């Protein structure tokens, strides 16, 4: 059996044989992970997502049939020689000679060894290279090792498994396996068991028939499907014609080439069969070498010196090939080895992975294939098939394994945002020498001071839950005191100023909620907006917003959106975001400032507002259950299904923020001029004689300064990403000028919301400059013509 993933299938499609092979084999439609008693652990239906992303679902079929199709596709079959066994390799400065067991010799410019893990070509290459590179050769001779052994087979007449069904087994006794249904009631399977200890090199065992019989008897009880009409591994063993017990070898080699000899496939990057990546990796490596040979041949011919390359030219080609393929092959080897270990549950950590982590990872197969396929290898001198162009994750040679943008690079680039958070912590802090608000607010609260408003005496409330609880009431009462001036227009901080500030934050908070429902953020801290909302409430916006923007930039690379479904947000979550925000955040805050009845009630509303990190999260969770869960359909067939809701919500809240900003400017015009200037007239620290209200004014001024500065920088970072990816067609200065004008005219909340929404539409409708989309290929062909 051979399993091929999308990259290898694309190459077969370029060669024109994929359609014929598809007719003989089955594509995997879904997979199940079970324990050896048959209990279902995980079910994964993401293989239709793989087809939508790349155009090709994983295929499995008989190796013999694939080899026949490759042979039949050859234009000159006379160059294919069967039954030849290489016994020696000779090379000189002009070429290389393969000496065969029957006495025949064949000479050429290059010898490519694709003869498997026990490669004769590789061993002859070691002999030639040992004198010059003794350490590398000695290391490679012991690089191959085995932790497992396995039985591979094909069972016939198995009616219990349907074509395209894949079952993976694991157990805590050091054994596991898998089975795949194929056409004609065939089942491809393998059963692996952990060896007592790791063995290397020549110590890797070779098994006899009696070893196979012992292995079968020990593992026949593994259950693939329980029930009266169930299926066990014993049933597969009993219905198989040829079964073989072999060691499961893996290894990473250092010496991939020497002189005019180069190796590919299992001979230089051997992995376990857990990912079904052996054949795929071999095809990719050979395709990359073929691309290099074609370029080098054309270069030699173009300069008029014939098609024969020099040794120096071959060295450069071989080294480029090794560097390009070593990273992906090494990663696949590591991951497949870990999965083999995890399937056999060799450690508590692996038991945790199989038993718990794997159950909660969405679309594991599709995401694993994405990293391999998005930047895989294609034949450069043949056109890309139409199937690989009409996809939601178009082929992009600049992305994939070892090509993703560095997290460290993005972290270093975003340090100014982090510095802004640190600066805010140092200047808008709780230290008495700067802003003695905490101490003074505590004094006001415990001193039972009353406030006068329009000749009325309003006590500062100290308890909200009908019994004295310092753990709850103390922070709530202190928080109310910070907003007392704006609630009652007592002094410098006006209601319009605070309403504008908090409405601007509502727009940003809506973005946080939407980002938390984005598929690309499933495994990042951006998934938990309540944490940042709580930090903003207790630490202040000036410290929290820059920190969120820092993390968002670090974890929101354009690489995250190589597949169109990764931009998608969960529609049920998105649909509930604004209602939850209005219910638990905006409503209590507005009522705390404009409640027309008893003025003391405003403090109760403010107390309710302070709980918004929890109340918004609970409201969002509850309200989202009122909407249908359409994610499985959207990620394949409706990639922009969330955009109308996002557009409606962001535009509505941005309009409210613009109204609050403009109202603030008009309300403050008589004493302060336009409201924007009041935000920036922060005059450093307060004098020792400053009142609580004067300190409070400076505190909110500095909060506004840092928040606005941070959002402007953050938008610059996001649009710069789009610019580098070739997705921003508008001029850079045009975009940033529009953002700057928007900040002054409509306020930071409105501008942030509209700019973020614009980025969302760019991500949804435009492709990376290096993505091989149908439109780009057609444009290139027209230019060529």
Structure characterization notes:
Its cofactor is FAD. Belongs to the paxM FAD-dependent monooxygenase family. This is FAD-binding domain-containing protein. InterPro entries: FAD-bd, FAD/NAD-bd_sf, FAD_mOase_fung. This protein has 785 residues and is of the alpha+beta class. The protein has two domains: 2-73 and 144-252 and 271-388, 2-Layer Sandwich (D-Amino Acid Oxidase, Chain A, domain 2); 407-765, no CATH class. It contains 31 helices and 21 strands. The strands form six sheets. An eight-stranded mixed beta sheet has the order 4-3-11-12-13-10-16-19. Strand 11 and strand 12 (175-182) form a beta hairpin. Helix 19 runs antiparallel to helix 24 (612-624). The longest helix is centred in the middle third of the chain and has 33 residues, at 311-343. The radius of gyration is 33 Å and the shape is elongated. 45% of the residues are buried. The model is unreliable at 430-449 and 670-677 (pLDDT under 50).
């Amino acid at each position: 059996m051979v399993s091929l993933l999308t990259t290898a299938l694309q190459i077969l499609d370029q060669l024109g044989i994929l359609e014929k092979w598809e007719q003989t084999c089955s594509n995997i439609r879904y997979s199940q992970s079970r324990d050896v008693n048959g209990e279902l652990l995980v079910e994964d239906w993401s293989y239709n997502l793989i087809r939508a992303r790349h155009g090709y679902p994983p295929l499995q079929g008989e190796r013999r049939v694939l080899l026949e199709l490759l042979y039949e596709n050859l234009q000159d079959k006379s160059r294919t020689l069967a039954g030849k066994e290489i016994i020696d390799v000779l090379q000189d400065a002009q070429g290389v000679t393969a000496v065969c067991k029957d006495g025949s010799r064949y000479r050429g410019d290059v010898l490519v060894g694709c003869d498997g893990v026990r490669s004769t070509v590789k061993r002859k290459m070691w002999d030639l290279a040992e004198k010059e590179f003794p350490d590398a050769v000695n290391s490679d001779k012991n690089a191959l090792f085995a932790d497992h052994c396995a039985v591979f087979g094909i069972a016939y007449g198995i009616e219990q498994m349907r074509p395209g069904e894949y079952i993976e087994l694991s157990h805590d006794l050091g054994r596991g396996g898998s089975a795949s249904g194929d056409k004609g009631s065939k089942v491809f399977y393998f059963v692996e068991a952990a060896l007592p200890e790791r063995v290397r090199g020549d110590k890797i065992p070779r098994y006899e028939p009696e070893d196979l019989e012992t292995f079968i008897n020990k593992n026949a009880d593994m259950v693939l499907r329980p029930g009266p009409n169930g299926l066990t591994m014993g049933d597969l063993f009993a219905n198989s014609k040829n079964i073989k017990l072999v060691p499961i070898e893996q290894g990473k080699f250092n010496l991939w080439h020497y002189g005019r000899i180069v190796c590919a496939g299992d001979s230089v990057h051997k992995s376990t069969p857990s990912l079904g990546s052996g054949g795929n990796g071999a095809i990719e490596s050979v395709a990359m070498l073929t691309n290099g040979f074609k370029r080098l041949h054309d270069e030699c011919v173009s300069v008029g010196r014939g098609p024969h390359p020099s040794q120096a030219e071959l060295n450069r080609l071989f080294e480029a090939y090794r560097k390009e393929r070593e990273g992906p092959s090494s990663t696949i080897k590591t991951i497949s080895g870990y999965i083999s270990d995890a399937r056999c549950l060799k450690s508590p950590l692996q038991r945790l992975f199989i038993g718990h982590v794997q159950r909660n990872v969405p679309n594991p197969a599709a995401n694993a294939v994405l990293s391999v396929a998005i930047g895989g290898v294609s034949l450069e001198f043949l056109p890309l098939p139409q199937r690989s162009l009409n996809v939601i994750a178009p082929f992009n040679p600049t992305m994939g394994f070892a090509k993703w943008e560095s997290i460290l690079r993005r972290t270093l680039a975003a340090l100014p945002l982090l510095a802004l958070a640190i600066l805010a912590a140092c200047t808008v802090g709780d230290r008495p020498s700067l802003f003695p608000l905490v101490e003074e607010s505590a004094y006001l609260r415990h001193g039972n001071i009353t406030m006068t408003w329009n000749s009325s005496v309003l006590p500062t409330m100290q308890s909200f839950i009908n019994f004295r609880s310092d753990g709850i009431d103390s922070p709530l009462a202190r928080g109310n005191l910070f907003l007392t001036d704006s609630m009652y227009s007592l002094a410098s901080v006006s209601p319009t100023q605070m309403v504008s500030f908090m409405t601007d934050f509502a727009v940003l908070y809506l973005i946080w909620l939407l980002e938390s429902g984005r598929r690309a953020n499933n495994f990042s801290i951006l998934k938990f907006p309540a944490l940042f909302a709580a930090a903003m409430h207790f630490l202040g916006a000036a410290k929290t917003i820059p920190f969120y923007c820092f993390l968002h930039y670090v974890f929101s690379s354009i690489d995250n959106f190589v597949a169109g479904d990764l931009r998608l947000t969960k529609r049920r979550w998105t649909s509930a975001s604004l209602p939850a925000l209005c219910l638990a955040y905006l409503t209590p805050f507005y009522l705390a400032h404009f409640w027309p009845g008893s003025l003391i009630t405003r403090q109760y509303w403010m107390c309710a507002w302070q709980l918004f990190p929890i109340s918004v999260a609970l409201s969002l969770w509850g309200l989202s259950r009122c909407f249908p869960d359409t994610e499985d359909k959207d990620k394949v067939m409706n990639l922009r299904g969330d955009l109308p809701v996002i557009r409606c919500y962001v535009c509505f809240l941005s309009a409210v923020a613009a109204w609050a900003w403009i109202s603030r400017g008009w309300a403050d015009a008589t004493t302060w001029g336009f409201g924007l200037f009041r935000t920036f007239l922060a005059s450093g620290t307060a004098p020792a004689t400053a009142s609580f209200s004067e300190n409070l004014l400076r505190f909110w001024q500095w909060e506004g300064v840092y928040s606005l500065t941070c959002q402007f920088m953050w938008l610059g970072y996001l649009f710069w990403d789009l610019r580098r990816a070739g997705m921003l067609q508008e001029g850079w200065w045009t975009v940033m000028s529009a953002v700057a004008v928007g900040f002054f005219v409509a306020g930071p909340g409105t501008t942030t919301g509209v700019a973020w929404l614009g980025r969302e539409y760019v991500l949804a409708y435009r492709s990376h400059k290096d993505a091989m989309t149908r439109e780009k290929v057609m444009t290139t062909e027209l230019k060529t013509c």
